[in-house]
Write a structure and sequence with these properties.
alpha/beta; Rossmann fold; 8-stranded mixed sheet; 8 strands
Amino acid sequence: MIAADLAPAVRAQYPFAPRDFAALSGRMSYVDHGPRAGRPVLLLHGNPSWSFLWRDLILRLAAQGRRVIAPDHVGMGLSARPDRFLRLADRLADIEALLAHLGIGEFDLGVHDWGGAIGFGVAGRWPDRVGRILVTNTGAFLSDRIPARIALCRAPLIGRFIVQSLNGFAWPATWMSVEQPLSPAAKAGFLAPYGSASVRRAVADFVADIPIEAEHPTRPVLAAVEASLEGLKGKPMLLCWGMRDFCFDRSFLEGFVARFPSAEQLRFADAGHYVLEDAGEAALGPIAAFFGPA
């Protein structure tokens, strides 16, 4: 799928002209919006969303002079669908390659869901290049907590059938990840890249890559990300959290607070996992102010 294939109602909410980059894992679609002279902000989505998640923030930040870069992880969104399992290590390498391709030196960062492990992984390797960090309903450290509904989606064989064949992850996310119903256009936008089993492999792979087991191949990678967080202390940070998130719940917020006690906090009691959808302007305004102009 390319941007031109999106339904008009979705295109109206996602008025960007994504570009393509030959990432290590395959073709990566990415938004590069706003003045090229503006200080870059890198926004990283998770699973099962795509850069559509950031649409309103992209427009807001670009309007105040920031250059906003929002990729779709390979296998997700408008990016290519390679026929192989991509793990956290692959995601880190892809984002580092994109930054190198674009010649990005210093940048600010925003993360959500799996974007936290990816974004903090990159930031932890290059702490001198990272400025302000927005953290929304995510994790970047090992945890044995996993909701039963996600554990079911990780179960051998049946889990992949539920997620990939029955669309039992991307579709439920359009109502389980919010407290206020999405508009029809927003729901269509989140689901647009995941219309058939053949394009949902990475959705299932992301779930399978959650490193719960001690011998899981991604566990040492995430452990290294966690260890690198120490080098990011002192960075200006905003924790923007939907407190009704069934997955990245209060315990994950508390995990960040323990590691970054000086971080600013925005807690939304009536918002879920897709905090920007539920909180709207109440979140976008403070986030824009946090990042500031170019």
